[in-house]
Amino acid sequence: MCELQRDIKFEDAMKRLEEIVKSLEDGNLSLEEAIKLYEEGIRLTKVCNDILRSVEKRVVLIEKLNGEYIQDDITDDIYGGLGQKE
C-alpha cells in the first residue's frame, strides 16, 4: 500500500470512492482509464475495510474495559447482521 493511502482518512477515502463510482458509471472513460480507476477503488476499499476493522477492535476493547462486552452486537451493526464475522 502506498504511503498516501496508509495515511488517508476514512472520510476522504469514501469521498474518493464515490467519485470513482460516478466516473465509472458515467461511462465516458477509455478502457485503460476505467481499469486504473477500478484498481484505485479496490485499494481504497481495502483501506476503508482496514480502518473499520481497527475501529471495531477499539470499540470492543473499550466495551470490555467498561465491563460491557458486546462484540456480537457491534459486529452485527457493522456487517448488517449478514454473518460476515472474521
TrEMBL record:
This is Exodeoxyribonuclease 7 small subunit. Belongs to the XseB family. It catalyses: Exonucleolytic cleavage in either 5'- to 3'- or 3'- to 5'-direction to yield nucleoside 5'-phosphates. HAMAP family: Exonuc_7_S. The keyword Protein transport does not apply. InterPro entries: Exonuc_VII_S, Exonuc_VII_ssu_sf. GO terms for cellular component: cytosol; exodeoxyribonuclease VII complex. GO terms for biological process: DNA catabolic process. The keyword Cell cycle does not apply. Heterooligomer composed of large and small subunits. Bidirectionally degrades single-stranded DNA into large acid-insoluble oligonucleotides, which are then degraded further into small acid-soluble oligonucleotides. Its EC number is 3.1.11.6. NCBIfam families: PRK00977.1-4, xseB. Keywords: Cytoplasm, Exonuclease, Hydrolase, Nuclease. SUPFAM superfamilies: XseB-like. Its main location: cytoplasm. GO terms for molecular function: exodeoxyribonuclease VII activity. It is found in: Cytoplasm.
